[in-house]
């Protein structure tokens, strides 16, 4: 998970704190927890509700912005330009 997060975020010259990270098979949320060292916009989903609860527990313990996103990040001022 740490290697994947570094491969995705370390080489990026932009401000990675506002980049969105989405894990479609979140499991217990380990990838999102490692990505939380770089980004504040974290999303995940899983087919197993128990794994989603495990992700919430890990988020509350180690990265609260995973569970309670920071509302100012959705402001148009912080939106990334596609150009």
Account of the protein in words:
The protein is built from 4 helices and 2 strands, in the order αβαβαα. It has 83 residues and is α+β, with helices and mostly antiparallel strands. The protein has a two-stranded parallel ribbon. Strand 1 (20-23), helix 2 (30-35) and strand 2 form a beta-alpha-beta unit. The model has no long low-confidence stretch (mean pLDDT 84).
Features of the shown structure:
single chain, about 80 residues, alpha+beta, two-stranded parallel sheet, 2 strands, about 40% helix, globular
Tally of strands: 2
As a whole number of angstroms, the C-alpha radius of gyration is 13 Å
Largest sheet: 2 strands, parallel
Low-confidence stretches: none
In which range does the helix fraction lie?
Answer: 25-40%
How much of the sequence lies in strands comes to 5-15%
Span between termini: 30 Å
* SSE arrangement, N to C: HEHEHH
Q: What structural category characterises the helix and strand content?
A: alpha+beta
Overall pLDDT level: 84
Widest sheet, order of strands: 1-2
The number of helical segments is: 4
Please state the overall shape, judged from the principal axes of the Cα atoms: globular
């Amino acid at each position: 998970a740490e290697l994947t997060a570094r491969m995705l975020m370390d080489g990026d010259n932009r401000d990675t704190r506002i980049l969105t990270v989405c894990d479609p098979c979140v499991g217990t949320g380990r990838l999102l927890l490692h990505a939380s060292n770089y980004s504040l916009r974290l999303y995940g989903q899983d087919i197993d509700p128990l794994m989603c609860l495990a992700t919430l527990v890990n988020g509350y313990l180690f990265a609260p912005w995973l569970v309670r996103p920071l509302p100012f990040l959705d402001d148009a001022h912080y939106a990334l330009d596609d150009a």
